[in-house]
From TrEMBL:
Residues 1-27 form the signal peptide. InterPro entries: Anaerobic_Co-chelatase (IPR010388), Sirohydro_Cobaltochel/CbiX (IPR050963). Coiled coil: none annotated. This is Anaerobic cobaltochelatase. The lineage of its organism: Bacteria, Bacillati, Bacillota, Clostridia, Peptostreptococcales. One of its GO terms (biological process) is anaerobic cobalamin biosynthetic process. The active site is at 181 (proton acceptor). The keyword Signal applies. The keyword Metal-binding applies. It comes from Maledivibacter halophilus. Keywords: Cobalt, Metal-binding, Signal. Co(2+) binds at residues 181, 212, 244.
Length: 306
C-alpha cells in the first residue's frame, strides 16, 4: 500500500507540473504570509538581447497583461542568464531571473503570484521553471503557474486562428514555412502536431520545421518538393524575431534557410516578426493566466476531454 501511495503522489506531482499547480494556503490552517492586497503576475520568457524585437514582442505582451489585469503588478523575468548578463553589462538593464524575481516578490510580501510563461511548449525550459517555482511553495499564500502557448488541443486551434492573420494568400505553388527552435525534449513533437493541425484546418501549403530538432530544413524541403512549391515565405515560430530568425532563417550566410532555399531554386520572401507581436498570440497567454486567476483550469481540461 505504501508503494501504491508513493506512485499516486508522483503522478499528482507530474500532473501539477504540466497542468498548472497551486499552493493555496487554507486561511483556517495558517495565517496570511503576505499582504492580501499585493498580487503579481510574473511574466517569464527566455529573453532576447535585441532591443527592437524585445519592445514589440515581450514588452508588448507584458503591456497586454497590465491592461487586462489592473489589480496585479506585472513583473518580468528571463530564463536565459546569458541574455540577462549581456543586458546588464552592455545596456545597464537589470532583468530578474526566475529565482531573483520570486525572492523579490517574497521580500515585498506579495500574497498571490501567478507565473505565466511565454514559452511555446511544455518542454525543458518549462520543466525547469516549474522546478524553480516549486522551491517557493511556502513563500506565498497562493502561487500558480500557467501553461505555455501550445498545451491543450484548443490552444493549437487558437494559435492557428492567430497565425491566419499573418498568412498571405497562397497560390498552389506557394508555401509558408514556419521556423521553430526545436528541442531535445520529447515535447519537440509539438511542432509536428502543429503542422498536422494546420493541414487539418485547410492550410495544406504551410509547413513547420526547426533549427535544432526534427523536422529540420531537409524534411521541410522534401515536403516542398512533393507539393511542387516554387515560392516560399519564411516566418519565425518563436516569441521574438531574434538571433535565430535574423541569422539562421533570414541571414545571408551559406547555411541560412533563406540561402539554402534560394540555391535550391525557390523564390524566398521573409516575414521577420516574432509571435509576441501577434495580438491573437498575446491573447492566448493572457487567457491562460485568466484561467488560473478565475480557477477555470480544471473546467477547461474537462471540456477538452468531452
Amino acid at each position: 500500500m505504501k508503494k501504491v501511495a508513493l506512485v499516486f503522489m508522483a503522478l499528482v506531482l507530474c500532473l501539477g507540473v504540466f497542468t498548472g499547480f497551486s499552493t493555496e494556503v487554507n486561511a483556517d490552517e495558517a495565517s496570511a504570509i503576505g499582504d492580501p492586497n499585493k498580487k503579481a503576475i510574473l511574466v517569464v520568457s527566455f529573453g532576447t538581447s535585441y532591443a527592437d524585437t524585445r519592445k514589440i514582442t515581450i514588452e508588448a505582451t507584458e503591456n497586454r497583461f497590465k491592461e487586462e489585469f489592473k489589480d496585479y503588478d506585472v513583473v518580468r523575468a528571463f530564463t536565459s542568464q546569458m541574455i540577462i548578463n549581456i543586458l546588464q553589462k552592455r545596456d545597464n538593464i537589470k532583468v530578474y531571473n526566475v529565482k531573483e524575481a520570486l525572492n523579490h516578490l517574497k521580500d515585498e510580501k506579495y500574497s498571490q503570484v501567478i507565473i505565466q510563461p511565454l514559452h511555446i511548449m511544455n518542454g525543458a525550459e518549462y520543466d525547469e521553471l516549474a522546478a524553480e517555482a516549486s522551491e517557493f511553495v511556502d513563500a506565498f499564500d497562493d502561487l500558480k503557474i500557467g501553461s505555455p502557448l501550445l498545451t491543450s488541443t484548443q490552444d493549437y486551434f487558437d494559435t492557428i486562428a492567430a497565425l491566419e492573420t499573418q498568412l498571405p494568400e497562397l497560390e498552389d505553388n506557394e508555401a509558408v514555412v514556419f521556423m521553430g527552435h526545436g528541442t531535445h525534449h520529447f515535447a519537440n513533437s509539438t511542432y509536428s502536431a502543429l503542422e498536422y493541425a494546420l493541414h487539418d484546418l485547410g492550410h495544406k501549403n504551410v509547413f513547420v520545421g526547426t533549427v535544432e530538432g526534427y523536422p529540420g530544413l531537409d524534411q521541410v524541403m522534401n515536403r516542398l518538393e512533393e507539393n511542387n512549391i516554387k515560392k516560399v515565405t519564411l516566418m519565425p515560430f518563436m516569441l521574438v524575431a531574434g538571433d535565430h530568425a535574423s541569422n539562421d532563417m533570414a541571414g545571408d550566410e551559406d547555411d541560412s534557410w533563406k540561402t539554402v532555399l534560394k540555391k535550391a531554386g525557390y523564390k524566398v520572401e521573409i516575414y521577420l516578426h516574432g509571435l509576441g507581436e501577434n495580438k491573437g498570440i498575446q491573447k492566448i497567454y493572457v487567457e491562460h493566466a485568466r484561467q488560473l486567476i478565475e480557477g477555470n483550469v480544471e473546467k477547461d481540461q474537462e471540456n477538452q476531454e468531452k
